[in-house]
Amino acid sequence: MKFTCNTEALYEACINVSRAISNKTNIPVLEGVLFKTTEQGLSLTGYDLDLGIFTTIEAMIIEDGEIVLEAKIISEILRCLEDDKVSFETDSRNVCRITSGVSIYNINGMGTEEYPELPYTYGENDIILNQKVFGDMIRQTVFAVSLDDARVAHRGVKFEISHGDIKAIALDGYRFAMRHEMIDYKGEDISFIVPAKSLNEITKFVTDDDGMISLSPDEKYMRVGINGYNIVSRLLDGDFMDYKRIIPTDFETEVHIKSSLLLDKLQSMAILADDRIKSPVRCTFKDDELFFNINSKNGEADTKMDVEMTGAEIEIGFNIRYLSDAVRASDGDKIKMCLSSPIKPVVIKPLEGDSYFYLVLPVRFRN
Amino acid sequence: MKFTCNTEALYEACINVSRAISNKTNIPVLEGVLFKTTEQGLSLTGYDLDLGIFTTIEAMIIEDGEIVLEAKIISEILRCLEDDKVSFETDSRNVCRITSGVSIYNINGMGTEEYPELPYTYGENDIILNQKVFGDMIRQTVFAVSLDDARVAHRGVKFEISHGDIKAIALDGYRFAMRHEMIDYKGEDISFIVPAKSLNEITKFVTDDDGMISLSPDEKYMRVGINGYNIVSRLLDGDFMDYKRIIPTDFETEVHIKSSLLLDKLQSMAILADDRIKSPVRCTFKDDELFFNINSKNGEADTKMDVEMTGAEIEIGFNIRYLSDAVRASDGDKIKMCLSSPIKPVVIKPLEGDSYFYLVLPVRFRN
Hints:
The structure is a homodimer.
Chain A: E1 2-6, H1 7-18, E2 32-38, E3 41-47, E4 51-57, E5 60-63, E6 66-70, H2 71-80, E7 85-90, E8 95-100, E9 103-108, E10 127-130, H3 131-139, E11 156-162, E12 165-171, E13 175-182, E14 190-195, H4 196-203, E15 212-217, E16 221-226, E17 229-234, E18 253-258, H5 259-270, E19 280-286, E20 289-296, E21 299-306, E22 308-311, E23 314-319, H6 320-329, E24 334-339, E25 346-350, E26 356-360
Antiparallel strand pairs in A: 1-5, 1-7, 2-3, 2-6, 3-4, 4-17, 7-8, 8-9, 10-15, 11-12, 11-14, 12-13, 13-26, 15-16, 16-17, 18-22, 18-24, 19-20, 19-23, 20-21, 24-25, 25-26
Helix pairs in contact in A: 1-2, 3-4, 5-6
């Protein structure tokens, strides 16, 4: 293999495909980036058997070939090079000579025989949507996925597409998050579950511009095309809870509340929590005020804030982190909280419309 | 104890004295900040038996008293308060009621009976110098202190004051760093060794303004007065190497070299080091060029840069980190390197004068 290309473009591609590389692998070749000459230029691949990322950049190919180079070392070398052109040349012993300006590196690479083939999905009905919208769908749901290994399907976000409506859904038994969006999609109804880990990597490829993202799911994998990169993720299998039956419809109390102030107040209560997962905050909604109280081995704290409420007064306990996560993921200055009783979940929605929907189970108090 | 004061001033003081608090202590009371009313206002203290920090802030004292409050909790509470005034009130069971705006905290505090007395040094001949200069003296030497527990004295920076000249000296057996400065000091000649850990904390109190710092050392402790804070550090005992005998005087080669480029080049070689402590870089000074080479299990690399040199050509090996540390600590765009042989230390100095002086031992190659 022998090629010359732009140093910065190669560095950027190398860093991006390396996001798929795990340093926990037992397969040495998977600690590297696969460099391969193709008709389109130079392709780079990173893969950890669950997630693969590949791209192709412009290069002057002098001799075809392929090699695997350790991701960390090759990225650091490319970052340090001073010249804007870099040349790679491999020999029969997989030594790769990298020359750029006055610098020369001779790196021990690895053969590509053991590098596994990436599963590649050709979608019949690609799902195309705005990349920022897709990024928001992930951000607004992925925090609620389960961390419990026992329920594999719940470790991902379920996407459901029906009649041009795409829904993202995540739940972990204590809370539920849903975000939906209308898109231009004429294909068959489809649903698939993407691991949270893959989604978190995909969001790193989302830029601020108005570009599109394509999703091509099949039975086992999904390919995502975004800004010149192809990301292939394994999909999750198994039963996903039928969320429709947990959505409550009747409420006693509706509260409009300023998100940022609510988050500050919850944070100021969390200071005294013994263990933030388990120390609940007591919330009392009464006469257009929300009173907070927490009581733990560290002491006790009270504060309050103004809200706009209709309906009955109510006292209800929450896991501070679960409630904060939902409020933080909400768009807009204000949110709507819908409550029915101290033992029924609270629903958090936008003031208008139904673009997102969160449900958080309350925590019961002993007294 | 009962007082009211400005929330932000109390938060800042609390964060600053907390720098002396270790979370590795077995003495619960040392995990807290000591609050104490005094004639001057409210004093706050943090102490870990090696380093103590205290300050006094303005407060409206309503009732005298003292209490210890857990550093982390009290800092977080003060950070979250929305009102610019805060009141503290303690009861006989060491519960501290903190009220500010609509928020009320009742925190379990600790009694002060077991809080150890800080050793306080009243200097007869306080050493007064510009705080930025003192900050530079620390920064330019502290990296070279020994991490070896066996030679306790070398875990600190030695300060020597003689005839108005203050020297800071650190060494670890592989390198030596010295910085000196003329100051207005009429006291007796004195020397003392301050632990690196204390110096690193002291530098956090150095601001960009032209204020002064006072050092009051005695046999066992030093008190530092800076920007309203008093910092008391234990001093180190034991033999400090007589550095004067290791300073070479004759050199074969003098090189003027651009510091930032040298650092970049060393960094670009370090990528291939197996273990950055031990993989040396080979430096060849020849015909106004400096050639770099490294060879490790990862591969081999070469690069070069222009220098200005006088004297004989020389090939010498260095620990990349030791050489980089010294170059990074140097002031000015360019430094002067003085070399005599592949087995004798290199000396790094400013182009003019002798404000700093570094010595790094070479690494011998096997071949």
